[in-house]
Design a protein that fits this description.
The protein has 211 residues and is of the alpha/beta class. It has helices at 20-27, 62-67, 74-86, 118-135, 145-152, 158-161, 180-184, 189-210, and strands spanning 53-57, 93-97, 104-107, 110-113, 139-143, 165-166, 174-177. It has one domain: Uracil-DNA glycosylase-like domain (Uracil-DNA Glycosylase, subunit E). It is globular. The N and C termini lie far apart (49 Å). Bound molecules: uracil (URA).
């Protein structure tokens, strides 16, 4: 069935009395924006319903698109390392993304990440809202500007607000920090190390909060 323009958000795909499983299954068929044509599959959030921490990134990357799981590629590996350094067990976290399909453009044989548009973020957001409503995390962690601005508004500045816990419409305790891929993009190993340490400091705020 073709979607009318004003209906093109995933809201109309949300099943009645949603559970994580029902949501994941419904999201597999989501056509609320055009990105389903680009990605191999929908990459839904993963983790326990009772997770105390919920981590939200931007969108799946190349590896996630192929594996069908969030944060399993280079950014995910860096995230895992930082979580360990901060004393947080990824098993205790629910991990998801604002956008559930990989947006990319070709460069030779590579599929290069392309930032999702506001329209694509808006179309996909109902999935994340439903995930948050089910998980009810003690602390919601927004990784990078796309995630933070999708939930907190366009004026939110991660660079200014990172590492601070505050209440939001989505969780009583919300915190934003940088996206792990921003650390991978640093030019020198010194910059990379410094940014990694700052990222771990932000994650330690979460560990202290949970302790
Ligand atoms: N970047 C993200 O924002 N999410 C992933 O799942 C992987 C990379």
């Amino acid at each position: 069935m073709a979607l009318r323009k004003e209906q093109t958000t995933a809201r109309i795909c949300i099943p009645e009395r949603p559970t994580l499983r029902k949501l994941k299954e419904a999201a597999e068929h989501c056509k609320a924006c055009e990105l389903y044509k680009l990605g191999t599959q929908t990459v839904f959030g993963e983790g326990k319903l009772k997770a105390r921490v919920m981590l939200v990134g931007e969108q799946p990357g190349n590896d996630e698109d192929l594996a069908g799981a969030p944060f399993v590629g280079p950014a995910g590996k860096l995230l895992d390392k930082a979580l360990v350094a901060a004393g947080i067990n990824r098993e205790d976290a629910y991990v998801s993304n604002v956008v559930k399909h990989f947006k990319w453009e070709p460069k030779g044989k590579l599929r290069l990440h392309k930032k999702p548009s506001g329209r694509e973020v808006g179309a996909c957001l109902p999935w994340l809202e439903e995930e948050i409503a089910l998980i009810k995390p003690e602390i919601l962690v927004l990784l990078g500007a796309t995630a933070a601005q999708a939930l907190l508004g366009k004026d939110f500045k991660v660079t200014k607000e990172r590492g601070k816990i505050f209440a939001s419409a989505f969780a009583e305790s919300t915190i934003a920090t940088v996206h792990p891929s921003s650390i991978l993009r640093q030019r020198s190993s010194e910059d990379c190390e410094r940014e990694f340490d700052l990222f771990v400091d932000d994650l330690k705020v979460i560990a202290d909060y949970l302790a």
